[in-house]
């Protein structure tokens, strides 16, 4: 019997057959010879199956190939025209990167949308994957030391490797030169091995190259293989909101943005320095026409520049001391400040200081060029955020500062649950830290009662931001507004 395209002959044909002995089921082509025998060919269908799997992987990964790929540059205006450094926090995913002010922020989609700053994740991330001509590989090393990068083909044969001494942190490499196929990549460092799968859709193979692009040492700045930072990658998908803090000398400006393409972000730097010499970050809102008003405040059309942290000064802006009062002396007339639970070490940089109404209305508590906010200005902020229960939009994102897990921090205000120092209360001194925060305002007063605006932890009332009447001897947080 002469058969041209057969690997096996099965006189007794069955619709599904295979090699049962080794447990592998083979898919076979069914043919009929001229003498009536049925035969089956495995190679034909194996080739079809391989092509089909590759096409499925290509289709699944197609959105990643076509995903957004943005470059963001930074510039300064106002008190400074240069940007020294930038901190970017993805409020949607929690990823944080830091870069030099002259660097480009590269926003893109990582295969699987991995958080490169989460030390619990130890995968290798590729973008794009499948790769057309090249792919950028990102991975985190938990320890420093000699590191081997190895690429193997689907059969397990090593086709390229590179060894370098790398520091603990996140590293990025560009891989190119691989022909169409599926490849296994492994990263081996002392006591640590991670692996990943890379699919190449490139029709032509060449010299395989593994080239380091940048490294972000743990707790350090971004550097590329030459030691000079130029571009910093950050995982990003459409709709993610970024809280971006730019630093120029003593100035810090915060914005929240959701980029939709390449752009240059221009920060308006405004001096905000208190009597102790502390410098505060500033949130500059937009006016009704969607344009930055340069930090000029006011109600109605203009929108203010706000402090993005709580005041923590122990001196008035004329350099004189603000009395620090503890225990029963707190309930005495005159300006005063304190730290929650009288613990400066824990509270100064987390929640700031707590001030009584006399200190707030002294006319010299806020940094020079800034003023104590009026009730109308807090109401403007409430309107700006859409009204209703806007507390969630003002709260800092992290549960570090709130017992309910924090908020969405939509404008970079970063409100923290600073609590209250209760005045005229013989039973309780300090209360409600991580539960409530209050901000003094100049508004309605009656006897020993004065107006504040409060944020509370999530409750049946929602995350509201509303007026709240408290005692003038109470100690609460202070935010100031640009003149």
- Find the structural class using helix and strand composition: mainly beta
Query: In which range does the helix fraction lie?
Result: under 10%
Strand order, biggest sheet?
Answer: 6-5-18-19-21-22
Strand content: 35-45%
Total domain units: 4
Major beta-sheet overview: 6 strands, mixed
- Summed over residues and divided by their number, the pLDDT gives a mean of 78
Q: Give the oligomeric state.
A: single chain
Give the end-to-end Cα distance, rounded to a whole number of Å: 99 Å
Q: Kindly provide the radius of gyration, computed on alpha-carbon positions and rounded to a whole number of angstroms.
A: 31 Å
Q: What's the number of extended β-strand segments?
A: 31
- Give the overall shape, derived from the CA principal axes: elongated
The stretches of 5 or more residues where confidence is low (pLDDT under 50) are: 1-45, 52-66, 111-121, 219-229, 288-302
Helical region count?
Answer: 5
Provide key terms for this protein.
about 475 residues, mainly beta, Immunoglobulin-like, 4 domains, 5-stranded antiparallel β-sheet, elongated
Task: Please give a structural write-up.
The chain has five helices and 31 strands. Helix content is 10%, strand content 36%. It has four domains: 8-65, no CATH class; 68-106 and 236-269, Sandwich (Immunoglobulin-like), CATH 2.60.40.2190; 110-233, Macroglobulin (MG2) domain (Immunoglobulin-like), CATH 2.60.40; 293-482, no CATH class. A hairpin with a 2-residue loop joins strand 28 and strand 29 (449-456). Mean pLDDT is 78; it is low at 1-45, 52-66, 111-121, 219-229 and 288-302. The strands form nine sheets. A six-stranded mixed β-sheet has the order 6-5-18-19-21-22, with no helix packed on it. It has helices at 42-65, 344-347, 357-360, 375-384, 391-394; strands at 8-9, 29-32, 38-41, 69-78, 85-90, 96-100, 104-108, 125-127, 134-141, 145-153, 158-166, 169-176, 181-189, 192-200, 209-217, 223-224, 231-235, 242-248, 251-257, 263-269, 281-284, 305-307, 337-338, 354-355, 370-371, 420-421, 430-431, 436-446, 449-456, 465-471, 481-482.
């Amino acid at each position: 019997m002469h058969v041209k395209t057969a690997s096996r002959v099965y006189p007794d044909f069955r619709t599904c057959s295979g090699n049962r002995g080794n447990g592998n089921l083979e898919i076979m082509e069914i043919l009929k010879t001229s003498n009536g025998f049925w035969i089956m060919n495995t190679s034909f269908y194996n080739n079809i199956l391989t092509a089909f799997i590759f096409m499925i992987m290509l289709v699944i990964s197609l959105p990643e190939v076509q995903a957004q790929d943005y470059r963001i540059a930074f510039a300064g205006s106002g008190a400074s025209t240069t940007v020294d450094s930038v901190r970017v926090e993805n409020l949607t995913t929690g990823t944080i990167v830091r870069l030099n002010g002259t660097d480009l922020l590269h926003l893109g989609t990582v295969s699987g949308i991995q958080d490169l700053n989460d030390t619990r994740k130890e995968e290798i991330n590729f973008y794009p994957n499948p790769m057309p001509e090249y792919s950028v590989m990102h991975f985190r090393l938990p320890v420093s030391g000699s590191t081997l990068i190895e690429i193997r083909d689907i059969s397990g044969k090593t086709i390229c490797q590179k060894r370098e001494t790398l520091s603990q942190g996140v590293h990025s490499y560009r891989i190119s030169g691989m022909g169409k196929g599926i490849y296994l990549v492994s990263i081996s460092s002392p006591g640590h091995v991670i692996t990943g799968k890379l699919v190449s859709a490139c029709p032509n193979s060449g010299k395989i190259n593994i080239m380091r692009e940048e490294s972000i040492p743990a707790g350090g700045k971004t550097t590329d293989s030459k030691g000079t930072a130029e571009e910093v990658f950050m995982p990003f998908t459409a709709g993610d909101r970024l809280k971006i803090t730019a630093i120029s000398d003593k100035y810090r400006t915060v914005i929240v943005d959701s980029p939709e393409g390449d752009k240059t972000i221009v920060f308006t730097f405004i001096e905000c320095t208190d009597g102790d010499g502390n410098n505060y970050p500033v949130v500059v809102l937009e006016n009704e026409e969607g344009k930055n008003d340069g930090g000029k405040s006011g109600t109605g059309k203009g929108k203010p520049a706000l402090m993005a942290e709580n005041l923590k000064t122990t001196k008035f802006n004329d350099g004189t001391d603000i009395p620090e009062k503890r225990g029963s002396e707190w309930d005495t007339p005159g300006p005063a400040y304190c730290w929650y639970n009288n613990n400066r070490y824990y509270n100064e940089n987390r929640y700031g200081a707590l001030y009584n109404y006399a200190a707030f209305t002294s006319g010299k508590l806020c940094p020079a060029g800034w003023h104590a906010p009026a009730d109308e200005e807090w109401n403007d902020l409430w309107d700006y955020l859409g009204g209703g229960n806007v507390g969630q939009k003002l709260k800092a994102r992290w549960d570090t500062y709130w017992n309910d897990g924090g908020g969405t921090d939509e404008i970079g205000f970063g409100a923290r649950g600073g609590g209250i120092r209760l005045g005229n209360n013989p039973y309780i001194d300090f209360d409600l830290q991580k539960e409530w925060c209050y901000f003094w305002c100049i508004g309605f007063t009656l006897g020993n009662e004065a107006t504040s605006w409060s944020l509370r932890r999530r409750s049946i009332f929602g995350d509201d931001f509303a007026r709240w009447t408290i005692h003038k001897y109470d100690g609460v947080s202070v935010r100031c507004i640009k003149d």
